[in-house]
Amino acid sequence: MKVLIIGPGALGCLLAAKLSRNNEVWVLDHDLARAAWLAAAGLVLAEGGQETRHFLRVTAEPEQVGLVDLALLCVKSRMVEGAVASAWPALREAALLVALQNGIGHLDVLPRLCRSICWALGATNQGATLVGPGQVQHRGSGPTWIGLPPRQFGGEPAGRPSCRQSLLLAAETLSEVGIPTEAVADILPRLWNKLLVNVGINALTAINNCPNGALLDDPESAELMAAAIAEGALVAKKLGIKLDRDPLAAARAVCGATATNLSSMLQDLRAGRPTEIEAINGAVLRLAGPLGLPLPVNEALVRKVRELERNQGRK
Ligand code: PAF
User: Fold this and answer.
1) 3-class SS string, the chain
2) pTM
3) CATH number given to 2-183
4) Is domain 188-314 given the CATH code 1.10.1040.10 in the classification?
5) pLDDT in tens, 228-256
6) Does the CB atom of residue 198 touch ligand 1 within 6 A?
7) How far is the CA of 168 from the centre of ligand 1 (A)?
8) Is the shortest distance between the CB of 144 and ligand 1 below 6 Å?
């Protein structure tokens, strides 16, 4: 397979390094200087006590990429619109684009941007920490699900009957390199399950400045995690989204499986970047408003993370 990874963040670098085992991998970076540096220095993946270096084709010019079988969109939620627009020369002929953002903010923009191509939504529970440009530590693995967008988000474009086939191939390709991935018929419950995992883990780890596993050891954090998730689950219920797993049990399992990982929100905060709080807890709050549901715990988490963002200053 020829695979394009858009965005060399923690998840992008992890997937690029893993997939390069038996695929032709290209990485698209909006930053020209960093792209050149990554192409020369390679990506370094630390996993299971071993470090491997992967020399890949890294470019800032989507025109260079050519036809791809699979594109994985690994940028932050707030960057989706810009990333899809600038990667379009590589995406318009891609067999499939899979969007792997945290939260649900990207659901508002992708249907409009991707009307003419096959695209899918994904939820992954991989724990990856970026310790320097192109240097990623794989700190725990959980399941990944991908699925074509439900009808309400646009469905398959006309004249592209192979979207499902490409989806199955994508799941197989990821699973083959140690990213266990299931192609599912209904991705929404999986997205919400993942959303609620992030609702429970990300803000609290950012506020407490701790790795994921520490939330289970601190009774107060464990309680807040349960309360934040319960509020989110209520919103899902009111919206008619059928969660297919117990979200609290899922969050606890992710905390255990990625115990030493720093959540993406904590990584963002430490790096002085804006976090994804608005696409995670903030998005749940916005949906709860019109439903008349008060979410005091999520409100407090959003307030605190916004305050931390302001105090740290943004890059
Ligand atoms: O955002 C993250 O960090 C990840 O989604 C997860 C699964 C919580 C692991 O850290």
Assistant:
1) CEEEEECCCHHHHHHHHHHCCCCEEEEECCCHHHHHHHHHHCEEEEECCEEEEECCEEECCHHHCCCCCEEEECCCHHHHHHHHHHHHHHHCCCCCEEECCCCCHHHHCHHHHCCCCCEEEEEECCCEEEEECCEEEECCCCCEEEECCCHHHCCCCCCCCCHHHHHHHHHHHHHHCCCCEEECCCCHHHHHHHHHHHHHHHHHHHHHCCCCCHHHHCHHHHHHHHHHHHHHHHHHHHCCCCCCCCHHHHHHHHHHHCCCCCCHHHHHHHCCCCCCCCCCHHHHHHHHHHHCCCCHHHHHHHHHHHHHHHHHCCC
2) 0.93
3) 3.40.50.720
4) yes
5) 999 999 999 999 999 989 999 999 999 99
6) yes
7) 24
8) no
